[in-house]
Amino acid sequence: MTKKIFSGVQPSGNLHLGNYLGAIKNFVDLQNQKETECIYCIVDLHAITVKQEPKELKKNIRETLATFIASGLNYEKSIIFNQSSVTAHAEGAWILSCTARMGWLNRMTQFKEKAGKDKEKASVGLYAYPVLMAADILLYDATHVPVGHDQKQHLELCRDIAQRFNSDFNVEDFLKVPEPLIQKNFSRIMSLKDGMKKMSKSDPSDLSRINLTDEKDLIVNKIKKAKTDNMPMPAIEENLEKRPEVENLLGIYSSLSNQTLDQSKKEFDGKNFSDFKEKLSDLLVEKITPISKEIKKLLNDSKNLDNILYDGSQKADKIASKKIKKIKELIGF
Ligand code: TYM
User: Fold this and answer.
1) Ligand 1 mean position to 39 CA, how many Å?
2) For an engineered disulfide with 14, which of 133, 201, 244, 310 has Cβ 3.0 to 4.6 Å away?
3) 276: helix, coil or strand?
4) Does the structure show a pLDDT above 80 at 122?
5) DSSP, res 234
6) Where are the beta strands (DSSP E) in 54-178?
């Protein structure tokens, strides 16, 4: 059976190693597998749930597309587009917001984290954001959704919304209930400064993350400064629960070299941290700098990027507009 893959990334600048290892690298692997149809969306409607400067947003949409292509996505194999250019997303989100329950949304931990202490000042969009995400997925009958661990709860909500809609309108299997595709081992890349916090574009310290646009010297410097501890490199049998920074760095190394954590522990057992950090920097430079160079090259031709998005949006619109039409018929519009 052909797997229908859908996923999205916000164009909010500073795409980083967490986005790459948790999501974009898998997007590329899935695109290159047999029997998959992949749709990747630059979710600009999601981005405006927090304040955006219009010129920056435009730049970041192009930069996200450039990052996709530089990482190996091929716009002839996959549909790549930006969300706001396909109107069915906003329509679908409204309709599904009448299916989703307040109680379900009240449980969303990401809203609580993002809204912080002053929930009253958060936008309504930030609160309703997971419903828009559900519309994204359900409009394309996606069967599988590759995401990082932080999106797991949103996907569970999407499944609940699909099931509730099908049951409310008595249409079995009309909205397809999607499966999350979350990597087992490296689905949470943590900050380089604090192993308990996820690597994030909103962290005020740039030293906390490797950006996909970072150049060699910056990467080397960030790894040099990455937090570790005073203990030796762990042996294979050592549990790393109490050493989250070390586990994170070894996880990054493992993921980039396509090996298991145990294999990486074995490789560095008995070695110094400085040896490990040097190898990790080399590997990051090898994998990330070709991406950052390609991003810069692609950004020189914004017309080309806009054309790619336009073509992708046309293709996406064909699929989504059919589905939204059926949804409206079911509702009685
Ligand atoms: P966003 O833009 O915050 O992140 C994009 C993807 O990167 C993953 N990610 C991480 N993975 C591992 N470690 C990290 N530190 C890390 N930080 C980010 C995220 O899990 C995500 O897969 N709501 C989504 C975008 C979205 C979407 C969708 C995704 C909108 N509609 C439909 C899937 C399907 C978001 O804000 O991701």
Assistant:
1) 15
2) 201
3) helix
4) yes
5) P
6) 79-82, 144-146
Residues 198-205 have a mean pLDDT of: 94
Kindly give the distance from the C-alpha atom of residue 215 to the centroid of ligand 1, in angstroms, as a whole number.
23
- Asked whether the beta carbons of 248 and 190 are under 8 A apart, the reply is yes
∠132-40-307 over CA atoms, to 5°? 110
Ligand 1 binding pocket includes 130 (Cβ within 6 Å): no
CA–CA separation, 209 vs 22, rounded Å?
14
291 lines ligand 1 (CB under 6 A): no
Q: What is the mean pLDDT of the segment spanning 285-294?
A: 97
Q: Which two tokens stand for residue 184?
A: 């087992």
Q: Whose structure tokens read 């202490």?
A: 117
Instruction: Tell me 43's DSSP state.
Output: -
pLDDT at 188 over 80: yes
Domains, the chain, in order of start with CATH, read 3-188+302-331 (3.40.50.620), 206-297 (1.10.240.10)
Residue 322 annotated to the active site: no
Q: Of 198, 265, 277, 287, which one is the catalytic site residue?
A: 198
Which of 3, 58, 59, 114 is catalytic? The answer is: 114
Q: Is the CB of 151 under 6 A from ligand 1?
A: yes
Contact 133, 90 (CB under 8 A): no
Segment 91-98 shows an average pLDDT of 98
Atom of ligand 1 nearest to the CA of 10: 2
- Looking at residue 19, what is its pLDDT? 97
108 token code pair: 């969303």
d(CA 12, CA 15): 8
Q: By CB neighbour count within 10 A (0-12 exposed, 13-18 middle, 19+ buried), where does 136 fall?
A: buried
